[in-house]
Design brief:
Elements (H helix, E strand, L loop, with lengths): L2 E5 L43 E8 L2 H17 L3 E8 L4 H10 L6 E4 L4 H6 L16 H4 L3 E2 L2 E2 L1 E3 L1 E10 H7 L10 H11 L8 E3 L6 H10 L16 H16 L6 H5 L16 E7 L3 H7 L4 E5 L9 E4 L2 E4 L6 H13 L1 H7 L5 E2 L2 H8 L4 H13 L4 E4 L6 H16 L5 H12 L5
Parallel strand pairs: 2-3, 2-4, 9-10, 12-15
Antiparallel strand pairs: 1-15, 4-13, 5-6, 7-13, 8-10, 8-11, 8-12, 8-14
Helix pairs in contact: 8-16, 15-16
């Protein structure tokens, strides 16, 4: 679950950002990737038994390729360790992983969203990473992967939450581009002013009438705090939510957001299904590390901007994702050794780049600074613009994952299709929250 609050003082504002958000797209498969080599230092493993580790992650094609290259590098240096990778886009990832875990068949090593950590740790589905060196990690980033003094997962990166927009399209249409620090009033005014300039079939923004993440940013900006409190209570401010939903109701009626069927067909970072890549929308939410992935689909077209603000900042900075070893693993020792290498080895850092955000390992971030690309710089600019007064992310109370992943989208679809009013949407969310309350 995601909960963001207060001010974050970020230690690595001089680090860099690369590509792909906590919500990544791109195709994937689970083909065996068990190349072995004869060179390298296998002595790092205390055992020479042949071990195949299953590892699962989500992301874009760029992230897949970099991760596979890292696995090859590890096998080259540890010939007795090979891998069975399972990788895909974000859609369906948690459902698949949860099904495997319920059947006691989860992969050895898994990439986890920060919002899932409370549930996975409280259900004893992860093993402590006692032999992983976390001395080069910011304690604020480590916190979301720890419970009762044990570190169950290590953060892979740090990202800022904001927006990405099609700068090439805005320039072509004569629509002004936004600047870091803009407000929600600026956002809705820009949407209104674009109405006469948008051709048929093109829209200003995706319909976010009841999107958990973007609404969270709006409620924070209005000074109303988190949607769900740290101690596990429903905290949506009724007037703020209805105001937000009414804004999008107006955009919907004016043709500034896509029709509901188009909106629901969106698949982030898919070359055919992503509404921004296909030219149907100009704005969508994004993380600071996503620019390279979108740029790979349409070179030079996109730019990042901070999440709009009001009385407070709307955006937040947070761990991009975590890496953990499951309790189902029959090779926990070897899996933990691999995790330690993955997050601490300089060659691993160079191979993986910034595809999971600013490396959470401060030394890795320094190593990559000199190779910053133009898209890295774009992400870094947005990250640094967000960081000084960004909302602080915490994993919050466990047990609310389905409220975020199931109940919110259901209410959103009803709003988008015009089946319920904003007032009814609030009532449905409040009613649904009762079963999650602590």
């Amino acid at each position: 679950m995601f909960i963001w609050k207060r001010l974050l003082k970020v230690a690595m504002t001089a680090s860099l950002v690369g590509s792909l958000a906590a919500c990544g797209g791109g195709g994937g498969n689970s083909a065996d990737h068990s190349q072995t080599g004869n060179s390298g230092n296998a002595a790092a493993n205390t055992s020479n038994k042949q071990v195949k580790l299953r590892i699962m992650w989500w992301g874009s094609q760029d992230r897949h390729q970099a991760t596979l290259a890292a696995l090859d590098l590890y096998t080259k240096n540890h010939p007795n360790i090979t891998f069975e990778p399972e990788y895909s886009g974000m859609d369906g990832y948690l459902d698949k992983l949860s099904t495997q875990a319920a059947a006691k068949n989860a992969p050895d090593i898994v990439q986890l969203d920060p919002g899932w950590m409370p549930d996975w740790m409280s259900r004893n589905q992860l093993t402590p990473l006692t032999d992983v060196d976390v001395s080069k990690f910011d304690p604020k980033l480590l916190a979301g992967g720890s419970l009762d003094g044990q570190q169950y997962a290590v953060p892979l990166g740090s990202v800022a939450f904001g927006m990405i927009y099609d700068k090439a399209a805005l320039d072509k249409l004569g629509i002004p581009t936004p600047a870091n620090g803009w407000t929600w009033d600026d956002f809705f005014a820009l949407a209104e002013s674009s109405k006469s300039k948008l051709p048929e079939g093109q829209y200003f923004v995706k319909d976010y009438a009841a999107n958990y993440f973007v609404y969270s940013a709006y409620q924070y900006a209005k000074g109303k705090g988190p949607v769900i409190t740290d101690d596990g209570h429903f905290n949506i401010d009724r007037d703020t939510f209805i105001d937000w939903a009414n804004h999008f109701d107006k955009l919907r009626k004016e043709g500034l957001v896509p029709p509901a069927d188009v909106n629901t067909a969106d698949k982030e970072l898919d070359p055919q299904m992503d509404l921004m890549v296909s030219g149907k929308i100009l704005f969508r939410y994004s993380f600071s590390n996503a620019l390279t992935s979108w740029d790979s689909l349409k070179k030079g077209a996109y730019s990042l901007v901070t999440m709009p603000r009001a009385e407070q900042a709307g955006g937040w900075v947070k761990p991009s994702m975590y890496l953990a070893v499951t309790n189902d693993s029959k090779n926990q020792k070897e899996a933990i050794e691999f995790v330690n290498w993955f997050v601490n080895d300089p060659e691993a850092a160079k191979t993986l780049g910034t595809l999971r955000g600013i490396p959470a390992n401060s030394e890795s971030a320094k190593i990559l600074e000199s190779s910053m690309s133009e898209t890295d710089k774009g992400g870094l600019d947005m990250y640094n613009a967000s960081a000084p007064d960004a909302q602080t992310w915490t994993a919050g109370a466990g047990g609310w994952t389905n409220f975020i992943d199931k109940d919110f989208p259901y209410v959103h679809d009803q709003l988008s299709f015009g089946k319920i009013t904003p007032e009814q949407a609030f009532d449905q969310l409040k009613e649904a929250s009762a079963s999650y309350e602590n």
